[in-house]
């Protein structure tokens, strides 16, 4: 099988990640002229620039260099995930373009904030008294009841 050209792989990854030549140059910290010469096929990038391009484009270095290997970077430690769902989420996130990564980040933080507020509401629900101001001692007593599993059987 014939090895793919690095210039074609860079273009393919740029299109997938929805990056312009200028954006890639800036993010990878590679001179625009150098990147242009890589894309035209005039020159091939040195290893440090291959690493920078692969990292910025979130692709495997071997794939970028034209070898028949998976496009997605191989994870150093597959055991770092707690579940298949977590692995799928992380790998899907890595495929998103910057705009959608930002949306994902905002949405995830919103979900987490809502979850934390819901948990806080449940714990503090017993603290609301209508006829007196709850003292710290009264709140602690209510928390003890709420956190005691035997109270909920």
UniProtKB/TrEMBL annotation:
Pfam families noted in UniProt: HTH_3
DNA-binding is among the record's keywords: yes
InterPro entries listed in its UniProt record: Cro/C1-type_HTH, Lambda_DNA-bd_dom_sf
Record keywords, A-Z: DNA-binding, Transcription, Transcription regulation
HTH cro/C1-type domain mapped to chain residues: 10-64
Annotated CDD domains: HTH_XRE
One GO MF term: DNA binding
PROSITE patterns for the chain: HTH_CROC1
Record-linked SMART domains: HTH_XRE (SM00530)
Protein name: Helix-turn-helix transcriptional regulator
């Amino acid at each position: 099988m014939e090895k793919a050209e690095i210039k074609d792989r860079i273009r393919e990854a740029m299109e997938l990640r929805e990056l312009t030549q200028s954006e890639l140059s800036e993010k990878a910290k590679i001179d625009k002229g150098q990147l242009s010469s890589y894309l035209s096929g005039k020159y091939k990038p040195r290893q440090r620039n291959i690493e920078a391009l692969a990292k910025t484009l979130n692709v495997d270095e071997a794939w970028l260099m034209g070898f028949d290997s998976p496009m997605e970077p191989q994870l150093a430690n597959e055991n770092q995930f707690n579940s298949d769902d977590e692995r799928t989420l992380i790998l899907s996130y890595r495929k998103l373009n910057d705009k959608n990564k930002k949306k994902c980040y905002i949405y995830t933080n919103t979900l987490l904030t809502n979850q934390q507020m819901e948990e806080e509401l449940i714990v503090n629900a017993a603290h609301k008294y209508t006829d007196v101001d709850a003292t710290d001692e009264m709140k602690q007593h209510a928390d003890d009841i709420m956190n005691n599993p035997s109270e909920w059987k």
